[in-house]
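ligand=uridine-diphosphate-N-acetylglucosamine
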Amino acid sequence: MMRAQMTSASSCWPVRNSSIPGLVAHNLSPPQVPGVQSDNGVFGSRTGLLVECLEVSGGSKLSGHVGISGAKNSALAVLAGALCSEEELNLKMIPDLHDIQRMVQVLQSVGVKVKRSASGLTVDASEIVSVEPCPEVVRKLRASFFVIGALVGRKGEAVVPLPGGCDIGARPIDLHVRGLRALGAQVEIRQDKVYARASHGKRLVGGKFHLDYPSVGATETLMMAASLADGETVLSNVAQEPEVVDLAQFLISCGAKICGVGSSTLVIKGVKKLHSTDFTIIPDRIEAGTFLIAAAITRSSISMSPIIPQHMTAVTNKLQEMGCKLRQTSQDSLLISPSQLLSSTSITTLPYPGFPTDLQPQFMTLMTSCIGRSVVKETVFESRMRHVEELQKLGAKVVVNKNVAVIRGIDCGSSLRGVPVTATDLRAGAALVLAGLAADGTTHIEGINHIDRGYESFDQKLRLLGASVERLASLPVELVTL
Ligand SMILES: CC(=O)N[C@H]1[C@@H](OP(=O)(O)OP(=O)(O)OC[C@H]2O[C@@H](n3ccc(=O)[nH]c3=O)[C@H](O)[C@@H]2O)O[C@H](CO)[C@@H](O)[C@@H]1O
Ligand SMILES: C=C(OP(=O)(O)O)C(=O)O
């Protein structure tokens, strides 16, 4: 009840950026919220006492073109990798979102100079003054932990707190730790901090390590560490996600010697130092997938670019199977035209090239609007079903048994209608916005700080496509009721 009051239009007011200058990819300038100071001097940011929520009115058709931003998870890994290089780097297609702002703060806390340039960021890690990044910031995101590989590779030691990130499972760091030990590091965990030190003087040494699970983060951490180790490292059963490949390409462009990129085994010959580069981050396949689902759930036709079609095969195949027509209109752009009636399907989340876990909540939402029963099996994270409870509040008929959800479509009881809901994590938040687009009436979504962590200008991009999405701000309940 308190939540409903807090998000009602009477206690909230719109916070709308006037426009997104050039909603064409490669040219997205940082959104500024009037009157709000940047907290790191690099991007605009939304801070202070205001609590924001999104008000989504369902039923609008979408149309037009949406520009896809650079991939969050690739940009975060590349920013961690920037610590490996002793020369200035020019990074393009870095999205402006909260996790990136925090990652910049992590780098700044160890002495890295970061500036916004016309096309992206320049990063100068020539002088690293500390091997212990700011714990408060590290604890706010997951990718901050990946700096441990770069720091211990470059400086011979690192002290990094256990990271934050989406609350979707236990998310241990054992593979990072065991992999660093295989490269000759002594690693201890004391009071929520990981202490790593190269035992052979100041440098790691090449070694062999088999990952029990193809962890994205552990592969990235170890790739960075091995790039600056003495001798050869062989990493087997590594993650093959496009973002992992992008980090490898970035390190190679700085002078790293990495073979087997995109396969399950990497052979890395360590080099003494890495040099400068100009590097462009790949487009965000998860953001693109979210907009494809936005079009499908509203039965609307939209186009998007830039995308890399082969990164999206698992998702586009499923959409086609359900009845969406997809056409590649150029090498890097895609047009989606869904049928009015979409049929049910099943998905199982898996490491790449399997169906991405980061699109599971959004896809589940789409399934509520299909004909028939769909099934979702989540195999990557053990607690990534928290959006189900919120979807149920909106009228979705979903039953969960451990890691399997059965979703009833519109012919068997699902019928979405707007109510107040709360985003529990990043993709859960996106899923609720998508549900709001298709629901009858108005959906208020709280907890949108999660969405801002990982989507650049999500509500603005949706508005430009014709969606009715307003960002409302209010004082927190405890202050309103004082
Ligand atoms: C910032 C970033 O890039 N985040 C992505 C990255 O997260 P992240 O790198 O955290 O994901 P991982 O691939 O490491 O995790 C996958 C599975 O491996 C387990 N695991 C991982 C490491 C470890 O040391 N031990 C262990 O058991 C995890 O608990 C999880 O069950 O990949 C995930 C899987 O594609 C995505 O959902 C996240 O968006
Ligand atoms: C899980 C995600 O991010 P993180 O790993 O940063 O929590 C995500 O991007 O969906």
